[in-house]
Amino acid sequence: MSTQGIFKGWLNKKAYGFIKIPDDSSDIFLHITHATNPLELSAGCQVEFEIDTSEKKRQAVNAKLIAPPHYPPLKDNGSSRVPYNNSHEQLQDSEQITDETLESEEIEELDTDAANNALLSEISRWKREAKSEDNTRYFWHVREVDQISQGEKCFVIGRKGSGKTAICEHFSALSSHDVFSEKLSFKNFPFNELYDHKNAKYTKPNQFITIWKYLIYSSICRLMLKDNSVDLEIREQLSKIYDDKAPLSRRIGRWVSKDFGFSLFGLSLKITRSEDTHEPTNWIKNVDYLEDLLLNHVSESKYYILFDELDEDYRDIVAEEQFEQYTALITSLFKAVQDIRSIFGGGGAKILPIVFLRDDIYDLVKDSDKNKWGDFRVDLNWDVEKIKRLIAFRISRAIDQDCKNILPFDAAWGRVFGARRIGVGSNRQKSKISTFEFICRSTLIRPRDFVLYLQNCAQHAIESNVQIGPTVVRYVDKAFSNYLRQELTDELFAILPDISNTFDTISQLRKWNFSIPEFEQAYQQRVEQGFIQERNVKFVLQILFLFSVIGNSPRGGRYVFRYQNREARLNYNERVVVHRGLFKALQIL
């Protein structure tokens, strides 16, 4: 026969609690092993159970949740949340209970008194994509931002998830009487619009410099319409041809049209009083008109032109010709930005084009001028201490969106995860590490990894009505592993179209530490079976190492991954290890 009551909570660090039954002066003892799902039960929730008297004392069995604590309590002649120190009549002393102190990690999460639902709720709403995030609240102002804003750096290079888009969004949102910005996003952009507009006067890979300069100059003209320090007559003239709200792809099509060229030519005659009265024969001449116009009439305001999501066409490259065309386009962009910096760098004008690009794409660019770009490049590299400062900032802002005094990392982390440690290895009771260290081992030490991990932990804790602790972290670790595999698949597909089958090859080895000959043998079998087309296994290993899917395992119990050391190179004489974050997704553990 089923009975209902109010669960009073698990005793701190104990494997049992008590249930209050309305109109009954005695509480019912409940051992954790007799709860259907102990993680669902917290103080004040309504439970349904059966009473077992076979052990000469009443105890609850088959206890299950029927209503969480915030539901109206059952009538019990007073408060249902009875203090723990009300003694249980049937229990004479604690020695009658076996396994009194629970050694497993799970019981640590059953004490939910310290859970801050408002904080967990806010963290659960964090966004992995910076474009969707509340950047006013959560943007962390790193040193690199100051270098970019002062014009010292203009090439922002970093891996996916390292914060490029967050910085881009920050600059895109800037607006004041003397600061203007426009983001040129190439997400879902028809790149053929650019490929079709080469300047035949330039040799490869410089044939796209002119179209990039045209885009930048035209975007500056659009921003000048908002700048009250620009002469009113100039703004009125510019508004006749640049005051449009069309998407970027359509704007480019219009800007390179013959009719637009005539309009711009007429504008140039009016504004610059140019002595060149030859009508333009194509859009290339327009670049000269705009350059003269800006040199003579742009104000001393800051104009940021932001290039983001340039990897869109890179994902679809399947042929050598496409690759050469794409890398030429990117190379031309870097050279166009350099050229504009040299043209406008000496005067009062502050025209600041900024390029955000994935590091693996940047590495593919080969050009004699590439070394010179290093002076203007900023690399978004992260280490554990820098990630800690970012997390402390985000948690502090999650607690208070206007927070000025950021909590130290340990205090901030403790507000979400507490001080509990998580068992690792074959003996989890003796070998324990912090939850932060456990999560670190599953990530590539990127902001996006931690935002997603904490977001998922908060969501699961809310759904299960528990604090975030070891069990929640372990539960989320599997979902995170699947996310990391998919993230790497998206990142690698343009280079290794067989990446999914390559991951399957690692799965079939069924171990995380193996020799290169072992991998080569398994890989060759997949090639012979027709699952994989790429036959150069050493190339595949290099790419897997480059993206930290694998690392080296030299003697001494340490591992070498490229995400930890950018200068690391694959050593074919050492064993390799799979990144721990992929273990579950690859079914290694």
What does this structure look like?
By secondary structure, the chain is of the alpha/beta class. The protein has 4 domains: 2-105, Nucleic acid-binding proteins (OB fold (Dihydrolipoamide Acetyltransferase, E2P)), CATH 2.40.50.140; 151-379, no CATH class; 384-488, no CATH class; 496-582. The protein has 21 helices and 15 strands. The chain has helices at 117-124, 135-138, 143-149, 164-172, 192-195, 209-224, 232-242, 248-255, 258-272, 284-297, 320-344, 359-364, 370-373, 384-399, 409-417, 435-442, 447-464, 470-492, 499-509, 516-528, 537-546; strands at 2-10, 16-20, 27-31, 46-52, 59-67, 155-158, 179-185, 302-308, 350-358, 377-379, 421-423, 432-434, 513-514, 550-553, 575-578. It has a 5-stranded mixed β-barrel. The chain has a 5-stranded parallel sheet with strand order 7-8-9-6-10, sandwiched between helices. Strand 11 and strand 12 form a beta hairpin. Helix 17 (447-464) packs across helix 18. The protein is globular and about 100 Å long. Residues 71-104 and 106-115 have low confidence and may be disordered. One of its GO terms (molecular function) is nucleic acid binding. Residues 2-65 form the CSD domain. InterPro entries: CSP_DNA-bd, NA-bd_OB-fold, P-loop_NTPase, Sll1717-like.
